[in-house]
Amino acid sequence: VNNREPIITLTTDFGGRDGYVGIVRGIILALNPDARLVDIAHDLPPFNIETAAYLLKNCHGAFPPGTVHLAVVDPGVGTDRAPVLIETRSYYLIGPDNGLFGFLSPREIRRVIVLNSGKYFSRDISRTFHARDIFAPAAGYLSLGIDPTELGPARNKINREVIVRPRRTSRGLVGRVVYVDRFGNLASSITEKNIPQLPVTVYVNGVRVGRLRKTFGSVKPGRPVAYINSFGHLEIAVNRGSAAEYFGLTVSSGAEILIASD
Amino acid sequence: VNNREPIITLTTDFGGRDGYVGIVRGIILALNPDARLVDIAHDLPPFNIETAAYLLKNCHGAFPPGTVHLAVVDPGVGTDRAPVLIETRSYYLIGPDNGLFGFLSPREIRRVIVLNSGKYFSRDISRTFHARDIFAPAAGYLSLGIDPTELGPARNKINREVIVRPRRTSRGLVGRVVYVDRFGNLASSITEKNIPQLPVTVYVNGVRVGRLRKTFGSVKPGRPVAYINSFGHLEIAVNRGSAAEYFGLTVSSGAEILIASD
Amino acid sequence: VNNREPIITLTTDFGGRDGYVGIVRGIILALNPDARLVDIAHDLPPFNIETAAYLLKNCHGAFPPGTVHLAVVDPGVGTDRAPVLIETRSYYLIGPDNGLFGFLSPREIRRVIVLNSGKYFSRDISRTFHARDIFAPAAGYLSLGIDPTELGPARNKINREVIVRPRRTSRGLVGRVVYVDRFGNLASSITEKNIPQLPVTVYVNGVRVGRLRKTFGSVKPGRPVAYINSFGHLEIAVNRGSAAEYFGLTVSSGAEILIASD
Question: Looking at this predicted complex, what is its ipTM?
Fold first, then answer.
């Protein structure tokens, strides 16, 4: 963290209705009034770690090196998942080690610190609001130039259980819907490099979408289409409509995406 | 206000769909381009002063001393409620004196200024958008170092009518739901220090929730639970669910919370 | 752009659920870490250019001169509408030339640049995310002081097809609802200066609202009222209620507003 005014991004499922994000901002600024707070998103589906991980994977790399990414989607707050700081080749990521950071490849990661230093974090932390009591202070101290190792002991690995890679089956490559965006587009766990040699046909929960196309404008309005989205993931959309409505899906539906070679 | 780059927080019920907050930001930055604007929340329930007061009470103290808090939930805009600047021991609060700041204790308050100086505020202000015409300019000028007394005359008291303290009855201590958060948790007007000697049993609109517990993880998924939330208020949640749905309540339901000694 | 820390505003229909705005912020900060990002609004109705133009018209002038306004509501992304930078007497506006900036009068505009410089924008831009690939880089480079003419060739005109001016008919002046705000107020394309000599009577889709009034408090709670809003446009509200609900309208209903002389 060597910016003159360090950038700290915030990604949560806290929403815009409540003051939870506001408090996090206050805590950070109270420690370091020069921190630059930048929102990635706060209206993520509550408690959905997989969706948050997909979003964070796609967004965090857009920021300048040295950025601190604070991310909290934490259904297990108060249980034994560890609060961590992960230092990668370019960034710092702070949040619960519940799979949220499982998209980071082992060779990107320089070190992992468990945030439990009695010097920096009160012993009397709440059971329900670690963003306020642990993650925001960690981001604030880090942005002041405190060495990560002061914030707690190192550990070797991070939790990767949430990220489910697509698997090859006799029917074809099977993945799942991991993200439904505002427009009802269905992003899947299947990336461009996973896809077998073209032509291929895409199915959502067994319903045929059609061939993989270049863009969602390739089909008539109201028709579904599969293409590679701007993050390199296979996505299903409906031209000028909502694929989520078309297929009757939400991000928690656990819908299956199948890619079959023709 | 002695920060090099003064922090101004924004709390409104203007939502994220419209440009009202954007205009407020523009007005402040046009007066003081060095102001640091920080959002507390904007998707508060429209016109609900009690809910906004609960949120502001819990959030404002997280920010560094000298922070200017601009807050606007103002169903009576254009009527005779006064636009005010309140200076406390640590902060400046700016907004309508309609009860929104009634959570401030008399000894916290250093002075109250009515924002009506003809020098700083146009005589030709709109009847519907005081955030633009009065509150944003007041925050901008204040952040430039203008003395609060220049912005209008002092008054003695603030409006406290919205904050209803819990009352002791023959049945027990009676309060009300003042906040429903994104997750459907029901925060009440009852604070930790109001609660009689344990054990106690908590009821929502006459329906038994159970004993006061340490955390919402103390009950089975799908079951309601009462505990002290991270702001020191009694709150009712449903483990892995929504208490608002469970009890069929919204923040405007005016639900009664009862605490009975066993 | 001569601010020490240039202000860049963001207006989109990307919403707060997804990371699209976050990526745009990251791209700008990666080019210019000193940029000050300020949100106007992100939860605009998807793909509605007319509504976004109304909002932008009303908000952009509140900001200090030199502000860069990045605005993206872009149903035609990937088609042949040009990505543009418009320099006005006071501001820079960046976004798709699809009518979004049609509210700017010809004499306000100093020059229009088509953003297609091979030096600054990759040839390999996505078909679906020009905010990331063109508009954010343009704002970032501009804020660094790069001359607009370096970003692409000049053109003469901008697209004005979306802005439909009210027309005089035998029944009276006819406009349309162009904006429905969070509170259900219906803003129209009719401005104060369009309105014929008073008294006049206002109709929504043929239903009588009543005389033009000074403010929405002029009628009883639950009753509709027409008045000039704080942006100088004729607006219909329901006192302490929602005019959108009262008349059963959304912004896409294309409702007619009629003003008849008495």
Answer: 0.92
